[in-house]
Design a protein that fits this description.
By secondary structure, the protein is mostly helical. Helices cover 58% and strands 10% of the residues. The strands form two sheets. It has a three-stranded antiparallel sheet. A two-stranded antiparallel sheet has the order 4-5. Helix 4 packs across helix 9, helix 7 packs parallel to helix 9 and helix 8 crosses helix 9. The N and C termini lie far apart (37 Å).
Length: 224
């Protein structure tokens, strides 16, 4: 299957049967925005210093599905003539499926999956006024099997894989695809990696994601 990014794989694993991210789950919605922010940071498009964000390079053509998020951050940084606070991003997105910016980002990522033949558009919301993105069964299976192979078998675990598992765990999505035993083993593998000399990058990734989510969830709880 085509290589996918953290944000694309997160959408595949977090949408419901109608292809939407439930507005009743703040965690799922926060983690979606967090996935985009994290991916931009890993690509070097933005820099995260504590609770502040700054733009460091242009958005690659291959990541155009994150253009709505990147453009907003870039616009605000230019307007403020400096970096912006992470919670400002959440306040702008409102963590609500009725919010324009949030819909633009979800539609952009969803459309990228449709273009790859990995999802189909669906009509959701009142009178079918919004779009959903129902992932193909083989797309879900490929992502899940990839996570299982990296975290439940011997071998190196990529930073992107560690980040995706953390996001899915925080969003309470892992239980849909993995047994309690598998979830326990996956978390144990991540902990063991973080304690090893070679696990510094994974530990940094875990700490980074948890810090990011803590900031975003605080902001979301105050705006919902």
């Amino acid at each position: 299957m085509t290589d996918l990014s953290i944000t694309q794989e997160y959408v595949i694993c977090s949408v419901d049967g109608k292809g939407k991210i439930s507005g009743f789950s703040i965690e799922k919605m926060v983690c979606f925005v967090a996935a985009g922010i994290l991916e931009l940071q890993m690509e070097g498009c933005i820099a995260l210093e504590g609770k502040h964000v700054s733009v460091t390079s242009e958005l690659p053509f291959s990541m155009q599905y994150l253009k709505p998020l990147y453009d907003f951050i870039n616009h605000e940084c230019i307007r403020c003539k400096k970096e912006i606070k992470l919670n400002k991003i959440l306040e702008a997105y409102h963590i609500s499926l009725t919010d324009k910016r949030y819909r633009e980002l979800l539609d952009s990522v969803g459309a990228s999956l449709v273009d790859k033949g990995l999802a189909q558009e669906s009509q959701v919301g009142l009178l079918g006024s919004k779009k959903g993105y129902v992932p193909a069964p083989e797309a879900i299976r490929s992502v899940v099997e990839g996570l299982r192979a990296e975290l439940l078998e011997e071998g190196k675990v990529a930073e992107e894989t560690a980040a995706l598992v953390i996001l899915l765990e925080k969003a309470k999505c892992l239980k849909q695809y993995f047994s309690k035993f598998e979830q326990k083993e996956m978390k144990k593998r991540l902990r063991n990696m973080m304690d090893s000399p070679d696990g510094k990058l994974v530990k940094a990734m875990v700490d980074h994601v948890e810090t990011l989510l803590a900031v975003l969830c605080v902001s979301a709880s105050g705006t919902v």
